[in-house]
Design brief:
Helices cover about 20% and strands about 20% of the residues. Strand 21 and strand 22 form a beta hairpin. It has a five-stranded parallel sheet with strand order 11-10-12-13-14, with helices on both faces. Strands 6-5-8-9 form a four-stranded antiparallel sheet, with no helix packed on it. Strands 19-18-21-22 form a four-stranded antiparallel sheet, with no helix packed on it. It is α+β, with helices and mostly antiparallel strands and about 550 residues long. The protein contains eleven helices and 23 strands. Helix 3 packs across helix 10, helix 6 packs parallel to helix 8 and helix 7 packs across helix 8.
Amino acid sequence: MKLWRSRWWRAALLPALVGATAWSGPMARADVNSDYPLIIDVSTPADGQCAGTKGAEHTGLHGTTAVYVPPGVPAHSDVEWRILGGGQPIRSGIAPVNSDVVTVGFDIPQDELPADGRLRVDARSRIPGGAVGGYGKPWNLRVSRDCRPLHVVSVGDSVTWGQGLDLDRKFGDLTTETLGTQTGRVTRLHDYSASGAALDAPGLHSDNAHCPAANAGGGELPDVFCQLEEAGGEARDRGYQVDLVLLDGCINDLDPIFGIPVGLTPGSQDLTAAVRRECGGAGAEPVNPAANVPYFSSSKLGYGGRGMQDAIEKAHALPGSPKVLVSNYFYGDAAPGTPQAVQQRWSEFVRTSAEAFRTAADRANTAAGETFAVAADGLFGQDGGSLGSDPKLWMNPLGDEEISLRLLACPPRSEQAPQCGKAVAGHADVEGARQYAKTFLLNPRVREWFGGGGPLGDGFTVSRTSGPAGSVDFDATPAGGAIRQYEWYFGDGVHLTTTGPTVSHSYADSGPNLPRLVVTDMSGHRSMYELGEPIVID
């Protein structure tokens, strides 16, 4: 039973809706309460326009709308209702006022629904003699022209996707949920990530195609390429097309326990060269020097010959030729007491891997002749500044500064080392994770693919992209004039918020430093811009 049809509800609430306003005469005056007639319900099937089908063809959106007309409207009056999409009426009608609630039906074919799925329903009264009132308070809803479920695949290391959070609150889940809200489509997440997974582990690919099951061969976890094999097989078996792949990799190839922060793992001392080898796929070592490291580390699976570009292209080859979002790691502050040398090495890793991911995505797009891949991150800064809700968030956006590098690297139930039993001991911050996911989806390419309207132009300019250490000038005038806040992420971990479009920043480290800018307009809408190339200091 609809709530508004209940006599109790009407007796209790309708007088409150009317308040002190009563229409006692013809509605020719312009000063009547503009809230009425009031749309109090729009009822559609549970699956919206996707419930009614004719064979394989969706027939459109069907439903009813209920209009409340307050007491005092003259006899023989009518209510005129309309449904607007894109600011234009797409359905309208006139019904007689024979009770305080008038119910009318509507039917909108699928191809007449607006591209953004936003509908607005309102109504006005028509009084005998020709007087017409104003349209009352509207009812807003969102539907979709696409009735296919939106299928998202997440692969890589589960730390990035939210290890330690409940199953429905991991980054992949929250990103998929946000995409569903943004597109108006039903969403499905297929998560193949595993904590400790490497990007490429040649030992798992005896014939370069077959992948063993998880934990086969002495506890080794399938790498990204194996996860993609599994994702493709399931999609083909179950007959669905993949829309988006969330991809990360190569952090475990370099050993996040000691290789990245300290440089003790063989082959990780020269971090730039190691990133080029593992993330960029510059070539495999004949023998993995980290294979016998006597502590837990997935680096013993690494030293593969395939890099991120190969993984991106394999992801795009899944059924449906999906878009690919490559997740970079988290810049952020280090835990209190972390040695400066460790912070510097992590900073170097984040920046060099971000550039490797960006380059891999660009090369994959060029090779394919289309833009299907993009590298993105959560825009975290050394000062804790981010679009998240918790200023304490550092390297892991899903925890706090109590989580150490060692815990980040361990699977939740590992038996290989005692310290791994506490891998999820950090305090989960679900809201921080949600904001992190929303920040990823600010990427202009992702917004172009899944709604939100870009932007794809240059939102800011810089005075130089190379040269000696020192100041670089930024100008966000191209982003437009109706901006109330500018959030600058300079690519070296420094985050700054300004109310004006120009700023200067001094670079000391060589980089690569890729600046981004998030602007907030007067209506609260956020847009992100990214420089076309990183700033490199000689």
